[in-house]
Amino acid sequence: MSNVVSALAGVSHAGFAKIEETGLNGMITVRGDLGSSEMAAAVKAATGASVPAIRKIAAGDKGRVAWMSPDELLVIVAYDDVADTMAALNDGLSGVHALVANVSDARAVFRISGDNTREVLAKVSPVDLSSEAFGAGDFRRSRIAQVAAAFWMNDDNSFEVVCFRSVAQYVFDVLRVSSDKGGEVGFFS
Amino acid sequence: MRRYSAFAIAREAARFHTGWERAWRSPEPKKKYDVIIVGAGGHGLATAFYLGKNYGITNVAIIEKGWLGGGNTGRNTTIIRSNYLQDPSAALYEKARSLYETMSQDLNYNVMFSPRGVIMLAQTESEIRGYQRTAHANALQGVKTEFIGPQRVKELVPIINLDGPRYPVLGGLWQERGGTGRHDAVAWGYARACSDMGMDIIQKCEVTGVRQEGGKVTGVDTTKGPIDCDKLGLVVAGNSGDLANMAGFRLPMESVALQALVSEPIKPCMDVVVMANTVHGYMSQSDKGEMVIGGGTDGFNNYTQRGSFHHVEETVRALVETFPMVSRLKMLRQWGGIVDVTGDRSPVIGKTPLGNCFINAGWGTGGFKAIPGGGWATAELIAKGEPGPLSAEFGMERFIEGRFIDESVAAGVAH
Amino acid sequence: MSTRLASGGRLLNKGKQVHFSFNGKQLTGFEGDTLASALLANDQMMIGRSFKYHRPRGIVASGAEEPNALFNMGEGGKFEPNQRATTTELFNGLSCASQNHWPSLEFDIGAINNHMTRFFPAGFYYKTFMFPAFAWKHVFEPIVRQSAGLGKAPKDRDVDTYEHFYAYVDVVIIGGGVAGLQAAKAAGASGAKVILMEQTPHWGGRAPVDGGDVDGMPVEDYITTLINDLKQMPNVTMRNRMMGAGVYDHGYVLGYERVTDHTPLENGPRHRLWRIRTKQIVTATGAIERPLSFAGNDIPGVMLASAVRDYVVDYGVSIGDRTVVVTNNDDAYRTAIALKKAGLEVPVVLDARASGGGALAEEAKALGIRVENGKGIAKVKGGKRVTGVAICAQAGEGSVLEEIKCDAVAMSGGWSPVVHLWSHCGGKLIWDDAQAHFRPDATRPPKGADGEGFVIPAGIANGPLDLPAVLADAHAAGLAAVKAIGMTSDVTAPVAEEKPEAAMEPVWLMPQGAGPKLRIKTWLDYQNDVKVSDVRLAAQEGYESVEHTKRYTTLGMATDQGKLSNINGLATLAGQLNAPIPAVGTTTFRPPYTPISFGAIAGEARDEVFQPLRRTPISGWHADNNAFDEPVGQWRRPYCYPQNGESHADAVKREINQTRTSVGLLDASTLGKIIVKGPDAGKFMDMMYTNMMSTLKPGKCRYGLMCNENGFLMDDGVVARIDEDTFLCHTTTGGAERIHGWMEDWLQCEWWDWKVYTANVTEQYAQIAVVGPNARKVIEKLGGDMDVSKEALAFMEWKDGKIGDFDARAYRISFSGELSYEIAVPASQGRAFWDALLEAGAEFGIMPYGTEGLHVMRAEKGFIMIGDETDGTVIPQDLNLNWAISKKKEDFLGKRAQLRDHMASADRWKLVGLETLDGSVIPDGSYIPADGNNANGQRNVQGRVTSTYYSPTLDRGIAMALVHNGLDRMGDVIECNTVSGTMIKAKIVDPVFYDKEGEKQNV
Amino acid sequence: MLTLKCPYCGVDAEETELHAEGEAHLKRFGPGSSDDDFESYLFMRENPKGVHFERWRHQSGCGKFFHAARCTMTLQVFGTYPAQTLEPPQDIKDKISATYPGWSWREFQ
């Protein structure tokens, strides 16, 4: 639908690493008992993935699931699949105390790829981003400079960063400045 | 006491200054005093001074665990202003400010009170409304302030950036007779005057217990032995909770670190004091040329006199935004002090559960500017045993009645 | 004169000339020079003036401790005052100028102060300038201010960028001298993650200058092998040009990296501030040589002995042709020997020790250098540079035995470990009698989060001064650091050799019996002009605490923070007080070690990323359509949309008239939206709100109030019941995060057994208010399956459905008193929905209105606004909102507080409306005085204005106010004050000015 | 610059991810309570020099509130624990006793 636009309409920047907005993602907040069989089944049905371990992101054939807190998950699917995924989750969790909310439009997502991707984030997040401490499949909620954000790492050393839609421009600008050429640190290499 | 003057200096210069006498005596404690003040900071010394000056009570000891003026009196950013919103605060701080006007002459000690003017910047619509409210209140309180527009701000502060992309300067609350003073000199001047009246300032003497009988204080135990008294004043910013503990009561206060920092000195570039509350930074330039900068308080209880560095960062980035030229200055030194913060962030001057024990505490970030007023009011309280008009609203009973003195309201909240 | 030697200069690349300028003069140096060494190579002995007396000042040191050589550097957006020449690498095009003089360095009017020295003792400010009272501010202070200060204030905006970097490691080693390198090797071999940082561009510190052998090779070669070893360790990061600026609690270290200061044309940030979290810190920060206190020790050409040596060996620069060396220890003989070996003259070494020196003294003598034991300097001769010294017996009072011509003096008063970083976080010191210095007390380190020490001093920074002991100590420190984190290292310690040294003897005044005439010319603090006489005076006057003395004299308060002066000053004070030095104590060391740029501290947060700015999905439209924004929390909201140059007031009037007569649009996306869901949601909502929310029917909306536990009104908004288990709570703009956190606090910490989940879905939706008599027509025009008729969607109901193509939820709520729909659509569709509404409403003249229009319209209706009618001291009862406070509920947050005497009192100020008698608008913030004054002489007050506007609808000024007994005083005329002192008369009226019956919103 | 381990997500969170939330283990007094109890609940604080129990929120993180036992004089952290409890866990009390034998804080010791 042409009516639908992501926060920054796919903006990108090429510094020593590349920053790009990935466009709209389907995102669903799920709160409930993460250890319950209903949750496991609902998540499996909705995404094909298992409930992730603490501070991990799990992938299934239909989507990914990130651990947000002891009673919260973030389900990530294709934007157009949200209604179906919501239905699957609500279905699986019917009768148990849980909350399922569509937050697809409340978020912006950026990908950081190329060289020294860890450095881009290490300039603005108080997180140990060394390879010993953070690798593919790890998921972390923290802050980017002055706003809350979450990120995870993919197999190709790229990161994906999720923030609130209203601060998308701020987060993009901060990541852009952090990846400006000449600012390579050389700490993780 | 030999008076200080230019002539005295000339006289002493001829003999290489060998004739100067001690500014204050360093006596051993007596067995008993009419009044013991615990804490030889600005408020404690001022309390003692006005006990002597206003009430003729001079059999007074001021007990200090460290060195006089070594707590928050010597650690603040020396701002003096009285543009407060609520009547009780405006009365107290304006009393203090007016006493600062003549303090150098009253004490024969140059405390370098410099009424260079204080601007509190308005950077949001609600801040404009808040400061206009303060200006209206001040007009009825006898505090001279005015709300000024951005161009006048720029004239007063040429280095300011009016058009910051985030928070443009929309105006400011201007108090022309606010300013700064030399913080150490305030303590030293009072100390010299107290000592001259025959009061004993006992440094390096820590209070270890409060002795009581039948709900009244009889004296204190100290590292220099027990000392008796008829009345006790606790004036120990940052340690109030600890002293109250010894005396057996609790306070509606918590102690947190407040930070400050200075730049390297540069030639004069800003003559007035600027406070930017929206972005949390305030700055003035000392006579030495250092930019003196106040930071924020930590959110957690702390007695280490070391604050968290991220508050320094927040303050500095606000100042770089407000005064872009500071970006290429350097931070020379940062430090922290421990301040007592009450439930409504206003101070306590009042009685305690012990009949003849009185307290002056909870000044939060505003203690220095209040020193002479706080001392004046506390002396009245101790001398008469009941609060006078200046401290009437500042008793601790306000917390049980729900009768707060909340100064944060001028800042407004988002709508 | 100082000059460049033909040979020597191990840090220079003599093949590469570098051009720079000083005070407009074009000069040249070499690659590898510091600004200081290059200036000395060009015979710039005098480089500035002191702070108080404007005395000529020359370079004293070769490193971070330099107090004098501070310059205005660069131009325009790269201008920077107070740049220290000894830590500034020379680069092509560098321009600098000396500071603190007028009109020129050579001829300085301020130097008149110099001749008045005797009249400006310590603390003289406090004793004079008091009369008349106004004179301090208007006469004396301006003079003091103008003559103080150092560099010029920058004028232009900084053109450079800065950044931060977070690093998490096991061990941080601060200092890349031989000790730091050795400690890094010992620690690195364990596999621990190590950062080794060094403030200069070079590794190895001063060991190559001082000499000695390690493992059978010259120490310089050993350093090369250490560097190579460390480079082979992937777990060790080596950074130079990075200073350990501060040590903070819980293992937090600030590293100040000067990335492009020396290459200003390169891309990249100027400075990078590293915020490092580490388990252990090794401070291999070296030591600083102390000056000796003799008369004239501040004349240009008097320099630390180690610095004289550094300039000869490292930079091939001689300070003078004839250098007198004066010392109380053996180390300074190295300087004499180095000078002699460079072909320079050393007319005499004055050794204050009666028994003289050890092996190094013998070596000097063997080179033909005259050595005088038990002698010192009575006085240095010269003005803008040294011309000679008068020699005396150290034990005497300064009778001159002999005068010697010379053009430089190299002095050494012993060495003080750099304990700053050890001390920043509470590490304690002990006094070492043998070396006459404070060193870290290893038994009382700063403690970390686990209660154990986390800083380990290493090498000279820990006290030992000779190479074998330094290396052994540094090696042990490296091992101890990894042991403390449960790792092991099996590297063996190196074996070093150095000539044994005779014991030093403390010399705090030269000669020891120097009288007042000499003491007043004997400097302790070169930059702040503090002399031995000043410290003695402070003690005499009772400023006995070291902190008193420091503050009274300004000793150690200059930009070098007393690196050269503190111990000498302390010893002088102790001497005057007849107390041992450790009993007098030491001052507190505060970060940073040397000054760091504010730019670096601010980091990336400047200009557009100074602070986050939150945007709604419709913000782009507002920006394109001339919206005038106001900041509301982190949001920017349009205040109004001026057209064709109209004033803001006219724009607001137009927007209101349009909305009241036809239809207007408001971007309400910033309102908070929180889902509350669960079997206990009703019970929870009843606690959070003053209202009874549990009885709200699905499909319905209710206006709710939230109070804090202190009873004060903190937020308001419309609550919609979605289904039996689910509520959607609207909060004020900027309130969403706060209220969500507030709810979570109670759920997590007080009622954790209640089955309720919350989710903040504020940004999922763009929310647009369609307001005005034609609102329904506009929505209906868009089509879709949602029936928005009065019957299908009544006032205070909500409904889901399609409006046009859009997935919408419509709420029939009104904050303006008009027919109004607040419609939420997914944020991604927000802009398109806004555009669609504008298009559909075109025939009705639809236009957006801003926050001011919103405010005026709600005031016309007598609706309260959080932040205007409330300020954190107002309870709902003050605002006559008792109807929204459930009397049936036993408890809700704030209920108990509202029962307290002062809050339950009938005497409180109550909300009323005000109509000015002349129709004018009362100024914002006006108070309503009452008769008489209070006990403090302040005018009594009986109320205050909370909101005041020009109402276009009524064409007059209207206001809301809190007035004492206001509800009983309808029709009374009161006066509102203005800052000019005149009063505005107003009548107390009902606060609902418009459509009192509410017919318009309910159609 | 504190670092506290969030007991919920296991992160050693640095202070800038956290938000201090005041004294822990306050007992709420509502309608029906005495003026003294209510004042005590809202305003009176232990504010000790030494062992303290306090509330934190992992604000820029998992969002959970938790408790910490910390010394206000040395900033030593004895432990953090979930907020869903009326008193500090025994192992943390033991750890405090190892450093400060005989300590007490309100009713705990």
Automatic annotation (TrEMBL), chain A:
SUPFAM superfamilies: Folate-binding domain. InterPro entries: SoxG, TrmE/GcvT-like. Pfam families: SoxG. It comes from the Bacteria. This is Sarcosine oxidase, gamma subunit family. The lineage of its organism: Bacteria, Pseudomonadati, Pseudomonadota, Alphaproteobacteria, Rhodobacterales.
Automatic annotation (TrEMBL), chain B:
GO terms for molecular function: nucleotide binding; sarcosine oxidase activity. GO terms for biological process: tetrahydrofolate metabolic process. Pfam families: DAO. One of its GO terms (cellular component) is cytoplasm. Keywords: Cytoplasm, FAD, Flavoprotein, FMN, Nucleotide-binding, Oxidoreductase. It catalyses: sarcosine + O2 + H2O = formaldehyde + glycine + H2O2; sarcosine + (6S)-5,6,7,8-tetrahydrofolate + O2 = (6R)-5,10-methylene-5,6,7,8-tetrahydrofolate + glycine + H2O2. It is found in: Cytoplasm. Its EC number is 1.5.3.24. PROSITE patterns: RHODANESE_3. It comes from the Bacteria. Its cofactor is FAD; FMN. Coiled coil: none annotated. Belongs to the SoxB family. This is Sarcosine oxidase subunit beta. The gene is soxB_5.
TrEMBL record, chain C:
It is an enzyme of class 2 (transferase). Residues 521-603 form the SoxA A3 domain. SUPFAM superfamilies: Aminomethyltransferase beta-barrel domain (SSF101790), FAD/NAD(P)-binding domain (SSF51905), Folate-binding domain (SSF103025). Belongs to the GcvT family. Residues 170-421 form the FAD/NAD(P)-binding domain. The lineage of its organism: Bacteria, Pseudomonadati, Pseudomonadota, Alphaproteobacteria, Rhodobacterales. It comes from Shimia thalassica. This is Aminomethyltransferase. The keyword Ribonucleoprotein does not apply. GO terms for biological process: methylation; tetrahydrofolate metabolic process. Residues 910-995 form the Aminomethyltransferase C-terminal domain. Residues 620-889 form the GCVT N-terminal domain. It comes from the Bacteria. Its EC number is 2.1.2.10. Pfam families: Fer2_4, GCV_T, GCV_T_C, Pyr_redox_2, SO_alpha_A3.
UniProtKB/TrEMBL annotation, chain D:
GO terms for biological process: tetrahydrofolate metabolic process. GO terms for molecular function: sarcosine oxidase activity. Signal peptide: none annotated. Pfam families: SoxD. It comes from the Bacteria. This is Sarcosine oxidase, delta subunit family.
